[in-house]
Write a structure and sequence with these properties.
By secondary structure, this protein is of the alpha+beta class. The protein has 10 helices and 8 strands.
Length: 219
């Protein structure tokens, strides 16, 4: 009888201990999710001492939602398509009209999101889902990558406003005149514009003559 009581006591103690660990992990996770705007990666959770299996358990029970591989968010968190894409394609950089949109240099959101990758990255699933895939040379790919906020306030990677303005004028992208005119007009009207940098990038992308023609009218 005494042995059975000791065993039962040990079991109850273990259950209480496990429950305390689970509750501690859950509180820590919820605090982290709150800090991160309702979304967290498995890597971020691991760095906070929360095992990824715990994330899976919470997702299986419907307490959080798995939105991409290794990415979880609160059930109540608003879906951010751009952030999902960034997590899905971490080497991709938002470019062209998507970058214009993120820099508030377009009147409306583009019909399709555009991402640029180094070399000859190929992903049929992206094209199938309406994502325009662009390729950039080894030298140009890392040029002017910046962090910008999506409309929902999350951080993603995009090319700078200056690089994007030059790139949309290249034959490879060939944006329509209305898009280019609006973007440049909006940019030159800003206090934080950097015309010397813009002109330097225009040389890099071989659109200096085209850019000057627009600037002569707008400045």
């Amino acid at each position: 009888m005494m042995i059975e009581l000791i065993v039962l006591t040990n079991i109850l103690t273990s259950c209480i201990f496990i429950s305390m660990i689970v509750n501690g992990n859950e509180k820590r996770l919820m605090a982290l999710l709150s800090e991160k705007g309702g979304r967290i990666t498995a890597k971020e959770a691991s760095l906070a001492g929360i095992h990824r299996m715990f994330l899976k358990q919470l997702a299986d029970t419907g307490q959080i939602v798995r939105v991409a591989r290794g990415v979880y968010q609160l059930v109540t968190a608003q879906e951010d398509e751009l952030l999902n894409l960034q997590h899905r394609c971490p080497t991709g950089v938002f470019s062209c009209e998507t970058a214009l949109f993120l820099h508030s240099l377009m009147e409306r959101a583009p019909f399709e999101w555009t991402m640029t990758f180094k070399g000859f990255y190929h992903s049929p699933s992206l094209a199938k889902n309406g994502i325009v895939v662009k390729h950039s040379s080894k030298n140009l790919y890392p040029l002017e990558i910046v962090e910008v906020k999506t409309p929902l306030g999350n951080i993603v990677r995009a090319y700078s406003a200056e690089r994007t303005l030059c790139e949309i004028m290249t034959a490879k992208v060939a944006a329509d005149i209305q898009t280019i005119t609006y973007a440049i007009k909006t940019y030159v009207g800003r206090k934080e514009k950097n015309i010397p940098k813009l002109m330097q990038l225009a040389k890099t992308f071989h659109v200096e003559k085209k850019l000057r023609a627009y600037l002569e009218v707008l400045l």
